[in-house]
Amino acid sequence: MESNQKNERFYSPPKPYSNPYLAGIGLGLVLLLTFIIMGRGLGASGAFSSTLAAIVNSIDTEFAHNNAFYKSYLEDNTNPLKDWLVFEVLGVLFGGFISGILAGRVKYSIERGPNFTDKKRLLFAFLGGSLMGIGAKLARGCTSGQALSGGALLNFGSWAFMLSVFAGAYMLAYFLRRQWR
Amino acid sequence: MMAPFYKFDLFSEEFSFIIAFIIGIGFGFFLERAGFGSAKKLTSQFYFTDMAVFKVMFTAIVTAMIGVYYLSLIGFLDYNLIYRNDTFLVPQIVGGLILGFGFIIGGYCPGTSLVAASTGKLDAIFFLLGVIAGTFGLSLIFSAIEPFYYSTAMGKLNLSDVLHIPYGIVIFFVVLMALGGFIAAEWVEKRLASKNVEVKDEKN
Question: What is the pTM of this model?
Fold first, then answer.
């Protein structure tokens, strides 16, 4: 009994997530503030491309400078990591961690449905991530930069993109139900 | 007009990086609060069991959209100085579909995978590595797909330009659509919740 109480004190169960509408307003205000202060929106995938450009450039500068993809990241001769989104993404890592700690939700785990193996889940995570990298480049942004930021500015391409993301995910959801349900 | 501050040279590029970090903290914080550090929660959207993705996303879009509109109307914020991507319609639709596939296979999007990784999800780290790998793969064939990448270029275009409806009216319709969506989302969740209870009862 006593040890149970102790356990409860040290391993308090994770707090429930916020009300989605309140979290949405919070997210919307962060986005609005970004528009007001910076004159640009939020993002994520761009930071990955910059990081990759920096890595490739440090391994083989000649290859990077001759490649159509990396050229644009290296044009102004500054380090591609000196980029607004790279710093923003570092903040995202930190902010997510703070919120998780405060709510008791930081815990090592692999997220999957009960009938799916860890190995398969990690493979699928990697594959899904790879598709994301390709899709985000074609679309000029991901859910953060296009759907959220471009969506709030009523950007035409962003709305076409957003509907396609939902359509794509719903199209494939049935076939992947075992991974999640 | 006073804003966007950065476009009026109120601070240096170096200082903008500090702002980026602070804004990122806010972004990550609310993503995690919403439960978007969990792939199961995120993908529930596509099985109609938890519509938080739609609710959070559209509340955020509506909040920022209305804010931008009214701050522009009172002459505080210049909408035209906010950076917007050009529209490349077909590559963006194809990219969106691929991203949607990646979402349901991988369980995250790039932003949410960061929050998941920082709260201890190993699958999110594999996802992050996947994003880098996928981008690298694309970079190797980029010159071959460049014609497609730059196809259907339409320049800077918003829904108001496309539909020939005033910006404020588009906002009104987006808000209506979002509210309709929220009501539908609540209804679907309640219906599925009662269904799940029935299934459990039958088992008992």
Answer: 0.93
